[in-house]
Queue: 2 jobs
Job 1
Amino acid sequence: MTYQIKTIGNNIDQEGLRSFGEAFEIDKVAEEEAQAFICRTQDFHGYDWSDELLAIGRAGAGFNNIPIEDCASRGIVVFNAPGGNANAVKELVLAMMIFGSRKLKPANKWLSQQLGSDQAIDLAVEDGKKAFNGREIAGKTLGIIGLGNIGSRIANDALQLGMKVVGYDPFIAVERAWEISHRVKRVDEISEIFEAADYITIHTPLTAETRGLYSAENFKKMKEGVVLLNFARDEMVVKEDLLDYIEKGKISYFATDFGSETYYHNEKIFVSPHLGGSTEEASLNCTRMVADSISSYLKTGEIINAVNFPRVIQALRTPYRITIINKNVPNVVASISQAVSEEDINIDNIINRASGEFAYTLLDLDEQDEGKLKELVQRFEAEENIIRVRLIKKEG
Ligand SMILES: NC(=O)C1=CN([C@@H]2O[C@H](COP(=O)(O)OP(=O)(O)OC[C@H]3O[C@@H](n4cnc5c(N)ncnc54)[C@H](O)[C@@H]3O)[C@@H](O)[C@H]2O)C=CC1
Ligand SMILES: O=C(O)CCC(=O)C(=O)O
């Protein structure tokens, strides 16, 4: 069996795609014929999904560009690459904190206006540089909102740079909590970050709760002269309020990864063109991670690192496996078992996991007769609450 993969957008790491191996063809068919997409920030809201599409791999962390519930309701599993670009974002954020503290943007602009001989420039520098006296980050308090893959790395490294660190994350994963130094003070209220921090960096996903969260109401609570960094998502910051609080001097510097014309000529704002995850290493990691997830999903039905379905791992030992995506309503598993028994097939193993409105079942069957199995698949497909059924033949 050959699977068709389509890359969407031109930013997909070619080396990472090699992880797919021989059973996969890349970019050989049109989008509507592909079984899986690999994408980065392409916006899929309102996209007209084809029935062929089984999976999407988001070669990155944030997946707000993909309507994951809509995908789930059509039986499309969406994978991301948790942590694949976290080090890249961490390095950029640490650099931006120092860059802002040393006033390098206005200093560089001023210097590039000093013309003449090197000696004349030296003289101008001697006099002019006092306008760019900066401050050090050591000894200051860094507030981190979101202690996930990125936030937890920044927390530990900022401690090494001599900062005090305060973190807020009501949903922190157990693994991250173990990784974070005990010297990071975890707080229960976001307002404690606003009140304590000299630097605030945002590392949460874009959700209904975080959209527009950084507005006048919260800027008011921050310390005078706070430095704010947003390398998470643009929509979390209310631009007019931010510009107002920059103007007032309450926010002394804002670094962001998301462009806006209103930012470009402001000396207290530094904007990068969504470069947080754009390193060779991160692009490779993320593409490999989603290629591996999609590859095992298409070949075995196992789900690893999906954002709209639960994790389901079970070695495939029987000659055939049926995978079922269904609505998470009562009696679906009972009706699956009944149909199998009516076809006189023996179940070797069954695993069913639900998450929210949808569930996923792996059904390993002690049966070699492909015709009989196809009949069973047709029975499942006719069930009202079943969304997608696949018959997978064990390789080798
Ligand atoms: N600028 C860029 O190129 C990149 C931006 N990102 C953005 O950064 C975000 C975070 O990335 P990762 O750390 O890799 O994700 P992650 O999923 O590992 O961590 C996110 C953390 O935010 C926490 N969280 C969720 N809602 C929260 C809330 N309301 N308040 C406080 N904490 C909350 C979660 O519990 C989790 O620990 C992504 O969702 C994405 O939007 C990620 C990678 C690259
Ligand atoms: O793919 C990219 O460059 C965007 C990275 C990003 O924003 C993410 O991983 O959430």
Job 2
Amino acid sequence: MPDPMARPLIPGGTPHLEASAPNPSNPVIGILGTGDFSRSLAKRLLAAGYQVVVGSRTPKRFVALFPEEAEVTTQMEAASQADVVFVAVYPEHHPTLVAVKPALAGKTLVDVSNGLRPSAFGPSNAELLADHFPESAVVKGFNTVSAWTLQRGPRDGNRQVFLCSDSQKAKNSVKQICHRMGFVPVDMGLLSASLEIENMPLRLFPSWRVPIVCSAALFAFFYLYNFARDVLHPYVTANKSAFYKMPIDTVNLSLPSAALVMLALVYLPGLCAAVLQLRRGTKYRRFPGWLDRWLTARKQFGLCSFLCAALHAVYSLSLPMRKSARYKLINMAYKQVQSRVEDSWVDEEVWRMELYLSAGIAALGLLSLLAVTSLPSVAGAINWREFSFVQSSLGYCALAAATAHTLLYGWSRAFDPSQYRFYLPPTFVPTLLLPAAALLGRLALLAPCAAARLARIRRGWEAGRHVRFAPAADDGMEDVSNV
Ligand SMILES: NC(=O)C1=CN([C@@H]2O[C@H](COP(=O)(O)OP(=O)(O)OC[C@H]3O[C@@H](n4cnc5c(N)ncnc54)[C@H](OP(=O)(O)O)[C@@H]3O)[C@@H](O)[C@H]2O)C=CC1
Ligand SMILES: [Fe+3]
């Protein structure tokens, strides 16, 4: 008969785990349920040298799916033999296990279950299990580890296992099992933390939702704006079809606007916080909820801005490859020949392009630096001062370079009223409102700090000695420029 365990649970999975010989002196670990999770867990426990006994409603049906070293038996038998029992059945089936209640009394039950959707209010599955089995010590854990990770081993997934329980003894025994299987237990405290642990694998990028919606909304706004100016208006007024601009030209005009406004949104909450601190005269008071949330989402806003800027760079590089660009070039050359212009070089145009491209490249380079230092592994390798220098000082430089790029791009149009082709102002006008506010706000905040520093240096020189800057006053007002 073919060995069913030779078939991996998932394509590409390890066909066989080397199970070390179970040590009779090791605790017997029970698993109730014979599903995906149970099979992966059994293999990992056997590999860690435990004795494994699996409890099923129909053991004969599933025995072939488990390694030979594991004993597959009835739920009652498994519960009686084991010291620690993993409950690998869905929470709605927990009540069907009451038949084995006497056998589980005084033992440790590990609830691995997950809910279907995040829940803000309890009771959690683990708390309900604890209600069903008051004589057992329930530990919540392993629900954040997928059957796939268990099958492949901790090297191929998240190594952390979040645990909580009201019984320290039970939690310690499960921690030991975690360690032996190669996972890293994270103690989350009492069983009341189980709802939070159950919600963990159900979250879908909660901190990214607002920044992503914001980027999408900004992009949509600028896209419609550019569409109205550059495509719809020529069609309505001159019956000129410019619909070919929709997939690349209009997208490429909208991306940098979204990127710049998103970047401004990274720095505006810090300025709001600084202004609030200055008005209150102290930094030791909580910010309003909306500002708190905005401040904590700055990294995501910055990364969304970086994505838009990087896409803009790729789109821009692809512009000359298009057929439309080639036709336009040939037509321009033909017109030039017809009008007998030998040299069409315009110094102002040349300089404008050189400058706006170099500002754009500098902005993208600085943004890449910000994105790299926001990675936890890189952020962990630099100290706080270095991090704040990159994220704050270089960040403002990136904002200034991107603003200059936009201004230089719109240079000729900004000063030439004949370029206003539509009643809407060119895109860079709405694009520059927030970045300009952020840059001016920063300058306004830095100016008094710089003046105070200069005054202190002068006082020091006048006193005939070189003084070091006094440490920040305890009201924290020195720190506002670092927010
Ligand atoms: N799969 C995964 O990646 C993960 C799963 N989990 C959790 O592990 C638990 C099991 O998941 P999984 O193994 O995928 O599920 P499966 O559907 O594959 O297995 C569930 C098992 O429950 C047993 N069971 C016991 N009583 C009943 C009953 N009354 N009705 C139906 N089945 C019953 C069955 O075994 P038998 O017929 O032998 O009694 C069945 O094999 C769930 O709570 C899940 O949330 C947590 C993290 C990851
Ligand atoms: Fe650009």
